[in-house]
Write a structure and sequence with these properties.
heterodimer; A: 364 residues; 41% helix; B: 101 residues; alpha+beta; 37% helix; 14% strand
């Protein structure tokens, strides 16, 4: 008799859950600059004109992040690689004993020499964004002619260098009919693309990026008909996986946090309430545990989960407090995309139940 | 003292103890994460090239309920295992990113 497949949490899941329960952050996302070589129409960054951290100040911030016990540092922007000291900063992350992730639009990695230099940093992964399967659609969004071709070269170079690549695609009305072609591009590199059905407002609350969101019927089709094929047979996410096993909606201000180019410590990339400037903090550990801003956000994340549990589609929600706040003015406010996604994911599961005789008999 | 007697974890790894539960070791270049038990993560922490194997065994004996004999066997086995998995630095070995520092 064959053994039943192991479906419970792995040792890795368990230790992450323990860290989460003790509010020990594993991740820090650092926006090292707002400079960028793209002009994406839906970019959420909202530079305020403050002075960005200098390289020595970023080093100081990294030292404090390390003291807090962070394991994974993600360098992002803007375009992180547009920072004049990108390699120095990335190497400092590694010197301090933390693992490195890089978020990039890939433009500069069209150059093989750049990718070879990135490889010396031994990044855990490089995450690039694709906005269309053709130059016309991708370049329309980035507003940089040739950016699609550069991205294709970057992907080839990363693949050839053996660097783990994550390919991300926010679904917009410009690429919604190209998702299978985008998957085909990712397939060439043996990568499962990660589609994102939520377009976020700008950090300052400006809702202009939402003009680019795909229409609701298409999003329903994405969850209901396309998702399995696009993700190699995966089931849609039923909740924010980073908080699984906890009472929270997500990992904001618990599993990780974000630092903006000015040094502000934020609960996460989406919820941009400053807990103070890291350069003015003598003890980040104390701020992390005692900040009224961070503690309020942690409470809100629990309240969000409780509220969603009372919703008829509750277990199917992937809810973002930051999007809720920018769209509705209330971090617990219901925003249309979350509801549409949840209903569509629920429908997907109901269809699975109907189409899967085993699931049907088990539930009988 | 030979470098073998002061073993050093591979500079291309990252690690994080999680309270008393053990910890994680990340091997970024291989995109791998290993989960270690509390003794394992303690030993990994001490593999800094400063501590000798004997000092590590003493630290383990002091912190965990284990005899010196068992600790010596377990620490040596664990170090061998790390070596096998490429998680210990060879003498003089540097990580590629050190050229950027």
């Amino acid at each position: 008799m064959s053994e039943a497949p192991h479906t419970g949490p792995t040792p890795y899941d368990l230790i992450r859950q323990k860290a989460f329960a003790k509010t020990m952050p594993m991740n820090c996302q650092i926006e090292i600059t707002y400079r960028c070589n793209h002009l994406c129409t839906f970019c959420y960054n909202s530079p305020t004109g403050e002075r960005e951290m200098t390289t020595p100040q970023i080093f100081e911030a990294l030292r404090k992040v390390k003291e807090l016990g962070v394991l994974y540092v993600t360098l992002t922007g803007g375009e992180a690689m547009c920072h004049k000291d990108f390699y120095k900063i990335a190497a400092e992350v590694r010197r301090l004993g933390m693992a490195l992730r890089i978020y990039s639009n890939g433009y500069l990695m069209a150059d093989k020499k750049v990718v070879q230099r990135v490889k010396t940093l031994s990044p855990m992964e490089v995450e690039v964004s694709i906005h269309g399967s053709r130059p016309e659609s991708h370049d329309e969004l980035t507003r940089i002619r040739g950016s699609f071709d550069k991205l294709m070269l970057a992907m080839e170079n990363l693949h050839e260098a053996g660097i783990k690549m994550v390919i991300k695609c926010p679904i917009t009305r410009l690429n919604a009919n190209e998702l299978f072609e985008i998957k085909a591009i990712a397939d060439r590199f043996g990568v499962q693309p990660q589609f994102d059905a939520v377009i976020t407002p700008k950090d300052d609350g400006n809702l202009d990026p939402l003009d680019l969101k795909a229409d609701d019927d298409l999003i329903r089709k994405y969850w209901g008909e396309w998702f399995h094929e696009l993700t190699g047979g995966s089931k849609p996410p039923r909740a924010n996986h980073c908080a699984s096993g906890s009472e929270s909606n997500c990992g904001t201000a618990v599993g990780g946090f974000t630092i903006d180019p000015y040094g502000h410590v934020l609960p996460c990339v989406a919820l941009r309430r400053s807990a103070g400037n890291i350069l003015e903090m003598d003890d980040l550990v104390e701020v992390w545990h005692k900040s009224p801003v961070l503690n309020e956000v942690r409470d809100l994340a629990v309240q969000a989960r409780t509220k969603l549990d009372g919703h008829e589609d509750g277990e199917f929600f992937t809810f973002c407090l930051g999007v809720a706040e920018t769209q509705t003015g209330d971090p617990l406010g219901m925003y249309p995309q979350a509801e549409i996604n949840a209903k569509s994911v629920r429908r997907n599961y109901e269809l699975l139940q109907i189409q899967d005789p085993e699931a049907k008999s088990n539930s009988a | 003292m030979s470098s073998d007697s002061n073993p050093r974890r591979h500079p291309d790894t990252a690690f994080r103890p999680v309270a008393d539960e053990g910890g994680l070791v990340v091997i970024p270049g291989r995109s791998e994460v290993k989960v270690l038990n509390p003794v394992g993560i303690k030993v990994y922490q001490l593999l800094d090239g400063e501590h000798s194997v004997e000092q590590i065994i003493t630290a383990v004996t002091a912190e965990f309920e284990v005899s010196a004999e068992d600790a010596a066997r377990d620490v040596n086995d664990f170090i061998d295992l790390l070596k096998e998995h490429g998680l210990l630095a060879a003498p003089g070995e540097r990580a590629p990113w050190e050229a950027e520092v």
